[in-house]
From TrEMBL:
It comes from Candidatus Pantoea communis. This is Methyltransferase. It is an enzyme of class 2 (transferase). It comes from the Bacteria. Keywords: Methyltransferase, Transferase. Residues 22-387 form the DNA methylase N-4/N-6 domain. InterPro entries: DNA_methylase_N4/N6, DNA_methylase_N6_adenine_CS, RM_Methyltransferase, SAM-dependent_MTases_sf.
């Protein structure tokens, strides 16, 4: 297994990789959660082939997060990706449109969107009733609306706006599924480059054996089991293990489970049954990473893994120094989710690139799944943490 970690700006580093050399790109770039820019200005820059520079601070005051990557990064990604290679990129719900527009402008084909749903987000909402109430206690009691237009609030205003806010609770992050265009058929491309398709069997959900009956035996000519086995093209029945992966996954939290009408949080599978079903299903290696549920509820149809646990975030950091034992990255992705994504779009033994590696969760997942990995990160502290987390997993799984 080859692991190549590069410290620096991916815009420059990407030029050092050979064209058509990478099998998949799986990344979690800056979400651009600072003040919304003037869209006409952004798009004018992008359509002219320039970068747009946004000067602001993003999530938790991090300047690297101030704006989504523009088309120039994705153009370089397109060049190094093999024809038919997939790009999976997380985005924030607010800036997904901008992020994917940049990916489209770079020449990618958008294929789908995977929704990752979780229960642990907090709304950043402005409580209007409380804000007005607070203003009442300030002298002079005026709220400037615009120059020369001052509104004098009353206690009735505070009552009227009680219960009003400005934001919803964040509960999902979309993942853009894009692919580098290719010529010829997908079969020709897969045979030539190994890329262009998704590894459905390696990402099936659950472990039960299911039979996909011949489609023409069913009323209406369609398989009743299509969600399990996909639309049968040849009408021939086959046995499969687990359900067809959906473009929806979740964190298994009570909050999300409660959204499903028939959920049963029966996560107490025996260790033997867990071990028997580790590879190619949603049940993942580290017990702490993912919870499990029986297949009796509708929620079990979807891949799930909890948000990154402390153990997952910090694993291996004690090797770095006695003081740096915590991973302080604010946006660590869970390894089991990254591993599922790696398996979905990377051919066996393929090379995965993450140009916005952060603390290295994609790399750690690539090691677990036996893929080669190239990671890029501009921040030296995060780079060191990524190096340690990935090296620890390598040593653990492949001690030399
Ligand atoms: C959202 S974080 C990725 C977090 C990662 N998924 C994890 O689990 O730790 C994005 C990362 O991209 C890095 N970054 C931003 N701009 C970059 C650039 N031009 N080149 C390389 N890295 C960059 C930031 O420093 C940040 O660590």
């Amino acid at each position: 297994m080859n692991i190549n970690l590069l410290h620096g700006d991916c815009l420059e580093l990407l030029d050092s990789l050979p064209e058509n050399s990478v099998d998949s790109i799986i990344t979690d770039p800056p979400y651009g959660l600072s003040k919304a820019p003037d869209m006409t200005e952004v798009l004018t820059h992008w359509l002219n082939g320039d970068d747009y520079e946004h000067r602001g601070s993003g999530f938790m005051g991090k300047t690297w997060d101030s704006f989504v990557p523009g088309p120039s990064v994705w153009r370089r990604c397109l060049a190094v990706l093999k024809p038919g290679g997939h790009l999976l990129s997380f985005f924030g719900s607010r800036t997904y449109d901008l992020g994917t527009t940049a990916i489209r402008l770079a020449g990618f084909e958008i294929r789908d969107q995977i929704m990752w749903v979780y229960g642990s987000g907090f709304p950043k909402s402005h409580n209007l009733g409380r804000a007005i109430d607070k203003a009442l206690g300030i002298k002079p009691t005026v709220i400037p609306y615009a120059e020369g237009d001052l509104h004098v609030p009353t206690s009735q205003d505070a009552k009227n706006w009680d219960g009003w806010g400005t934001a919803l609770k964040p509960a999902h992050e979309p993942i853009c599924v894009a692919r580098k265009p290719f010529t010829g058929s997908v079969v020709q491309n897969v045979l030539k480059h190994g890329t262009g398709a998704m590894n459905i069997n390696a990402t099936r959900v659950g472990t039960e054996t299911r039979y996909n009956p011949r489609s023409h035996n069913k009323p209406g000519g369609l398989s009743l089991n299509m969600s399990v086995c996909g639309m049968p093209e040849d009408g021939v029945g086959s046995l499969v293990s687990g359900r067809w992966p959906a473009n929806f996954c979740h964190d298994g939290s009570e909050e999300v489970l409660n959204l499903f009408p028939h959920s049963t949080s029966n996560g107490n599978r025996s260790e033997a049954s867990r071990q028997a079903s580790v590879k190619g299903t949603s049940w993942l290696m580290d017990n702490h990473m993912s919870q499990e549920y029986s297949d009796s509820g509708s929620v079990a149809r979807y891949f799930y893994c909890a948000k990154a646990s402390k153990q997952d975030r910090d694993e291996g950091l004690h090797m770095m120094s006695e003081t740096q034992t915590r991973n302080p990255h604010p946006t660590v992705k869970p390894t089991s989710l990254m591993a599922w994504l790696c398996r979905l779009v990377t051919p066996t033994g393929g090379v995965i690139l993450d140009p916005f590696m952060g603390s290295g969760s994609t790399g750690k997942a690539a090691v677990i799944e036996d893929f080669d990995f190239i990671g890029m990160e501009s921040d030296s502290d995060y780079f060191d943490i990524a190096r340690q987390r990935i090296a620890f997993k390598q040593n653990q799984l492949h001690p030399s």
